[in-house]
Amino acid sequence: MITTSIMQIIQERRTIRQFSNRPLDIDTIRDIIDVARWAPHHAKTEPWRLILFHGEQRQQIIHMAKKAYTHLSETALAAFISYLQTVPAFLIVVMEQKENRKQWEDDLCATSALTQNIQLVAWEKQVGVVWRTFGEQITSLMKEHLGVHRDEKIVGILQMGYFDDAPEATQRKSVDELLTIM
Questions:
Q1: How do residues 61-115 score in pLDDT, each as one tens digit?
Q2: Domain 16-165: which topology?
Q3: Is the Cβ–Cβ distance between 15 and 130 less than 8 Å?
Q4: For residues 28 and 10, what is the distance between their CA atoms, to the nearest angstrom?
């Protein structure tokens, strides 16, 4: 197995929105999660859980999207549903919501680190991912349909699958633009 350095993976990873027809098996997704679950969380509570919609179960996501996106025109909704049909797997990233604001922020940061780990490990396995987030109106409807509890937050839906072409890198700010040295 050829391994790539973490620096190279971070720089080369791209958001993938167009997936190939190659099936993505559950064992590959399990392997990705098995590594990604080592995300840091200083309280060691692992405040996340994951829900996978794969194979025919993907239709639940598509059904939910039809109900959630009624504000779209008929043409736009049909195009969106057609796109969703091309996504091999949907991985819902869910976080327990604590009432303590500091704990909530720590948990969100840790769950985001888990999500980034999933993207990086997936990239190493040549699996593309797009991390989707939604407003509260859509998320509350999702909760009802996707088995997410009221005291949980949907941090994102990861659309996953193999891909043929990766997009070009976008320009990033330089270190000098980002870093203030005191």
A1: 999 888 888 888 999 999 999 999 999 999 999 999 989 999 999 999 999 999 9
A2: NADH Oxidase (3.40.109)
A3: yes
A4: 20
* Total-model pTM: 0.92
Angstrom distances, CA of residue 84 to CA of 19, 46, 73, 149: 10, 30, 16, 24
Can you say how many angstroms the Cα of residue 69 is from the centroid of all Cα atoms in its chain?
19
Facing residues of 159 across strands?
A: 90, 130
- Non-local (6+) Cβ contacts of 175 within 8 A are none
- Out of 37-41, 68-72, 135-139, 155-159, which region has the weakest mean confidence (pLDDT)? 135-139
Residue among 109, 125, 98, 114 nearest 3 (CA)? 125
**The residue to which tokens 């859509």 are assigned:** 138
Give the pLDDT score at 1: 56
Instruction: Name residue, tokens 């937050």.
Output: 153
CA pair distance 92, 111, nearest whole angstrom: 12
Taking CA 108 as the corner, what is the angle to CA 102 and CA 113, rounded to the nearest 5 degrees? Answer: 130
- Domain parsing of the chain, residue ranges: 16-165
Q: Which amino acid is at 178?
A: L
